[in-house]
Design a protein that fits this description.
With 384 residues, the chain is mainly beta. The chain has 2 helices and 21 strands. It has a 21-stranded mixed beta sheet that branches. The longest helix has 26 residues, at 2-27. The protein is elongated. The termini are far apart.
Length: 384
């Protein structure tokens, strides 16, 4: 009886092993991968389609073209190789050892006027390790406008409900960018990281280094920037708050430039060393409001090739095509003071190009304070 029971158990073990080996062999065949991809296309009703797929569930996937269709955009990945470790089937970690994609094209089919929605979750059912993802070219096409990004390299991990971008580098039209950050996968989606831009080959090279923190719905940015050309340069700082899921993402911003040599903007300009402090926040509609203060540390007269301005301040309201300056104060030192307002208009549709309107009042304009060869005056009146 015991011998018969032993033989039955032995045959069951052999049969179970054979079934497991058969399933493993079955899962490793290329046609099993093809079946899985066909099921993916069917279940997504054609929104995801893989063309020219090769490989297996054990080693990974090589494809000629992967299409992801949505109502508002079409995303196409071309010439991709994604290889993973077979051990992922025995663990809860997907280890992608190689991910190379020659080109990604994002075509904007329909623009959405609604703001982006905050996700309910960014969790994955398994851990993820991708030491290096490479993408040769990324093109974003919006009608006739094409934005081209190059040479993306990315290292990503996901574990313990947290995403970590260990490094990311990419070439953009505005310079080379690199970043590293951590992002919680559950609300409130705490985020922290660093982003840097550098454009060394431009006529006016610049560098930007920013730290980001807060939550995905309320991001704080603290940045430093520097601009330098062959003759001179300047730098400053930006403190800003962004709300990416609101119709107006900018919550507030403050820009400080402690030392701006005016001639760094053009050698024909007067010599001046300006300190600028500007603030901005949303106003009604798609307009902004804020204030600006300027102090000139090297005031002088025009015959000295200096700027005869001691300080200037104003309240600002409007947008990039039209804005108003109210509570405008121009302190010309020995040259007198002006108070009033000003406006700027630049709207090609209305036939208004670079139109500046002034409404200033002075009680003590001294021409000699502007240019040493002019006589002393105490002019009162309006300047429009």
């Amino acid at each position: 009886m015991r011998a018969r029971l032993f033989k039955i158990l032995l045959w069951l073990a052999v049969l179970s092993s054979a079934m497991v080996l058969g399933l493993m062999w079955f899962a490793g065949r290329e046609w099993t991968l093809q079946y899985a991809l066909n099921e993916l296309t069917s279940r997504t009703e054609g929104q995801v389609n893989v063309i020219g797929a090769r490989g297996g569930l054990y080693e990974g996937l090589t494809f000629d073209r992967l299409e992801i269709r949505r109502l508002d955009q079409l995303i196409v990945l071309e010439q991709g190789v994604i290889l993973w470790e077979p051990a992922m089937f025995l663990s809860k970690t997907l280890h992608v050892k190689q991910a190379n994609i020659a080109r990604i094209t994002v075509e904007i089919i329909k623009k959405s006027t609604a703001p982006a929605q905050e996700p309910a979750s960014l969790e994955l059912p398994i851990n993820l390790v991708m030491p290096l993802v490479k993408v040769g070219v990324i093109e974003i096409r919006d009608a006739d406008k094409i934005t081209r990004l190059t040479s993306l390299e990315l290292g990503v991990q996901y574990a313990s409900k947290r995403w970590q971008v260990e490094r990311a580098t990419i070439g953009t039209p505005w310079g080379a960018a690199k970043a590293g950050l951590t992002l919680d996968a559950i609300r409130p989606f705490a985020i922290k990281g660093d982003i840097a831009f550098a454009q060394e080959s431009a006529e006016t090279p610049y560098r930007i280094a920013a730290g980001i923190s807060g939550r995905l719905s309320d991001i704080g940015i603290a940045a430093n920037f520097s601009v330098k050309d062959a003759n001179s340069g300047f730098g400053g700082s930006v403190i800003a708050a962004l709300a990416p899921f609101k119709s107006q993402p900018l919550v507030r911003a403050n820009v400080k430039v402690p030392k701006l040599g005016l001639r760094s903007l053009g050698q024909s300009l007067p010599d001046a060393m300006l300190a600028i402090d500007a603030s901005l926040e949303p106003d009604t509609g798609h307009t902004f409001k804020g204030g600006i203060n300027v102090i000139n540390a090297t005031r002088g007269t025009l015959d000295q090739e200096r700027l005869p301005l001691t300080s200037a301040s104003a309240r600002v309201a409007g947008n990039m095509t039209r804005f108003n300056l109210s509570d405008l104060v121009l302190d010309l030192g020995e040259g007198g003071q002006f108070r009033g307002s000003a406006s700027y208009r630049n709207d090609a549709a209305l036939g208004v190009l670079d139109r500046i309107t002034l409404a200033l009042n002075t009680q003590n304009l001294n021409l000699n304070g502007l240019h040493a060869k002019l006589r002393k005056t105490a002019i009162k009146g309006e300047a429009t």
